[in-house]
Each structure stands twice: as C-alpha cells, then as structure tokens.
Specification:
Layout lengths: L7 H15 L7 H11 L12 H4 L19 H11 L25 H16 L3
C-alpha cells in the first residue's frame, strides 16, 4: 500500500492482491463478489483499466533481496541491528563497523555514544552512497 494518502481504492487493491496470493483460484468467487459489492458502493481504485483480479492487484516490486548479486548493498545486518534497537527488553543491536571520529559532525552537544553512532552512520552512508 502507499505510505501516505491511502484511499479506499488502495485498500481494495491490497485486499485483492493479498487474496490472490493466498487463494489464487478463488473457486468460490468471493474476491469477485467483494469487488462488485464495493463497486456498487462507489469504491473503485483510480487508475485501473478494469476490475479484473489481475488489473486490481498491485504490481510485484522490483527485487527486494537484501543479499546476493541483485542487491547493491547488504542491508540485512543494519535492518537486524535497527530491529534489535527497537526491542525494549532485549540487547541493543551492534553498531556499524566504521566508527572513525573523523567522519562525525562537529557538535559539542553530542554525548560519546551519540558521536560514535553519528560517525558510524556517516561512514556507512559514505561507503554506500551509490
């Protein structure tokens, strides 16, 4: 779904997409019945050519693999670290490897751990700017 400005039409497309993944055959024609019921109430996605399942489904995203030759940057360790940081009970995730103070912004208000994180984040961003 879109990140912002979600419409009822977006919800219809999301429902159809998820249902097609779970029940590709739709033997009971429940998906078609739902779409027709919503159409009768004026809830129709914008920008679709028809109300067929294939047209209503969201297009498949580009390869979102976090590893392998298709992924220009290995984000898996950073995503894991960020996820661990959000856990209020568990330990914090590891910092990115580059902790050079030379790349940290010069800000007297930062504490040592904030400086280290800032340096690591700036170093990571420079290394992965592409």
């Amino acid at each position: 779904m879109p990140v912002v400005d979600v419409t009822f039409g977006d919800v219809v497309r999301s429902l159809v997409t998820a249902d097609r993944v779970l029940y590709p055959d739709d033997e009971l024609k429940l998906r078609r019945t739902l779409v027709e019921a919503l159409r009768r109430r004026g809830i129709v996605p914008q920008g679709v050519l028809s109300l067929a399942d294939a047209e209503l489904s969201w297009p498949r995203p580009i390869d979102l693999s976090l590893t392998g030759p298709a992924a220009p940057v290995d984000l898996q360790p950073l995503i894991l670290s960020a996820t661990l940081d959000l856990d209020p009970v568990g330990p914090a995730g590891p910092m990115p490897e580059d902790r050079s103070a030379a790349s940290a912004p010069d800000d007297g208000d930062l504490h040592d751990d904030e400086r280290a994180f800032s340096a690591a984040a700036v170093g990571w961003a420079r290394a992965h700017a592409r």
